[in-house]
């Protein structure tokens, strides 16, 4: 999550069980049943946890990711939580997270974060979280950097939440207020669908217009929109986003690189490259449809 994904930047820098039963007398059968009961309950509990869909499952996945990383180390935390096709970003490029962290040395750095805002698809199996992070060079050291992370999550075929993408912004020494509650949004079951080709067309039109200035984003901003902007604390809602975008340089060149559509087709994320003069960075947008309009639910913007 530096001016790439700060989480990934700090890390890179430094079959089912088949039980066959045979009746060998009533007493032995009862004994076996009692022996297998704890195993059965454990499997039942595990499957229940893995199958936790919806907004609470999404938030829980992010919190478990953060807790495991804090208790162990950044490298193992990311390797444990990312999907095999998950992406991290830096200098205008996207990298496979598992490949990148497998090759990365283990860092003594301490990366702490927590979700503040979460949105989940009506299908309960795809969504995003965003919130503040802090980084210290090692345990006991002072915080040297802070910012906001944004993570895209998808439930895989095994019923596990896995991180599909992670990008963040740094705001350095600025202080984020303590998170007291996680704002939750679950998209409606009969919400408007997204056509991915139409979304890409909107992206291309918007990115072209952004070369003339940040006002091109405003038609796609709603009161529930959340923007994480380079060197700024996060902002939400029309008025605050309009004010925050005044610091965005004119002439930024945006290039869409890829994205993913939720299985319920109501939520999609797109990522790409931002070029500011000769410097390349990354951006991410999460889109929804609301009241017949395209809405940016989340914008992550570095330059």
From TrEMBL:
Family matches, as Gene3D superfamilies: 3.10.450.50
Protein name: Ketosteroid isomerase homolog
Source organism of this protein record: Sediminibacterium ginsengisoli
């Amino acid at each position: 999550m530096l001016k790439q994904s700060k989480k990934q930047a700090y890390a890179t820098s430094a079959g089912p069980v088949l039980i066959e039963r045979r009746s060998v007398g009533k007493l032995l059968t009862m004994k076996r049943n009692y022996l297998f009961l704890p195993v059965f309950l454990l499997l039942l509990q595990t499957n229940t946890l893995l199958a936790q869909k919806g907004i609470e499952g999404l938030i829980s996945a992010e919190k478990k990711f953060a807790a495991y990383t804090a208790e162990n180390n950044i490298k193992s935390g990311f390797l444990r939580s990312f999907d095999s096709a998950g992406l991290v970003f830096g200098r205008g490029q996207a990298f496979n997270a598992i490949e990148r962290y497998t090759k990365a040395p283990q860092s003594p750095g301490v990366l702490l974060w927590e979700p503040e805002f979460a949105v989940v698809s009506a299908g309960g199996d795809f969504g995003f979280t965003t919130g503040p992070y802090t980084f210290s060079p090692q345990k006991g050291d002072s915080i040297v950097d802070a910012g906001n992370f944004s993570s895209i999550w998808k439930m895989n075929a095994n019923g596990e939440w896995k991180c599909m993408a992670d990008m963040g912004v740094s705001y350095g020494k600025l202080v984020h207020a303590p998170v007291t509650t996680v704002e939750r949004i679950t998209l409606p079951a009969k919400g408007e669908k997204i056509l991915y080709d139409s979304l890409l067309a909107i992206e291309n039109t918007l990115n072209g217009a952004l070369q003339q200035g940040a006002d091109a984003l405003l038609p796609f901003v709603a009161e529930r929109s959340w923007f994480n902007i380079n060197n700024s604390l996060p902002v939400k809602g029309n008025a605050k986003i309009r004010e925050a975008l005044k610091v965005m340089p004119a002439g930024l060149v945006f290039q869409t690189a890829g994205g993913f559509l939720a299985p319920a087709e109501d939520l999609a994320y797109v990522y790409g490259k931002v070029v500011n003069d000769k410097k390349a960075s990354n951006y991410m947008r999460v889109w929804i449809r609301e009241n017949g309009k395209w809405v940016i639910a989340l914008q992550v913007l570095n330059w």
